[in-house]
Amino acid sequence: MGFRFRPVESSFYDLFSEFGTHLVSGAGILAEMLAEGADREDVARRMREAEHACDETTHALIRRVNSTFVTPFDREDIYDLASGLDDIMDMMEEAVDLILLYEVTHLPSELSNQVEVIQRCAELTAEAMPRLKSMADLDDYWIEINRLENAGDKSYRRILASLFSGKYEALEVLKLKDVVESLEGAIDAFEKVANTVEQIAVKES
Hints:
By secondary structure, this protein is an all-alpha fold. It has helices spanning about 10-35, 40-65, 75-100, 110-130, 140-165, 170-205.
């Protein structure tokens, strides 16, 4: 029976765990942006810093892949996973930036449902990243992320229905729709990452 050589070098797994930490931090900052009386300039500044830190982790991981002869799993899968994790942070940062730039005066309470989904997805992803090393107990992760993505879709449709109900001014609808779509993009990106993890786990099993 054959076997697959897996490098012991752990920096790849450490970097993926760093991504998880960034996402939890970013989701928390995003939630702050929706809080009543938030200092939006300060929140946006801290989100930009969090997004920059995530970019640095992405660059470090890519450099590690390019300088390593034998990687823990397929290079393309590492690239896809890193890109997907970075996309999540980008979408969260975009939502925060739009709220600031558009000077949105009223955020519908329904947006908190989307942000709660994002925070839970971030927590689950952060918990899953260290388990890439053993590829153990990951199926519950991608199953739950898929469930949360479905819940996020339902919330997204309800919010859109509310926006187009006639309760909001046309310009406000356009502003809020962009913010809501950024939040939805973050949730979709979490599902993409979970699907990538599932594909890696199947290959490595």
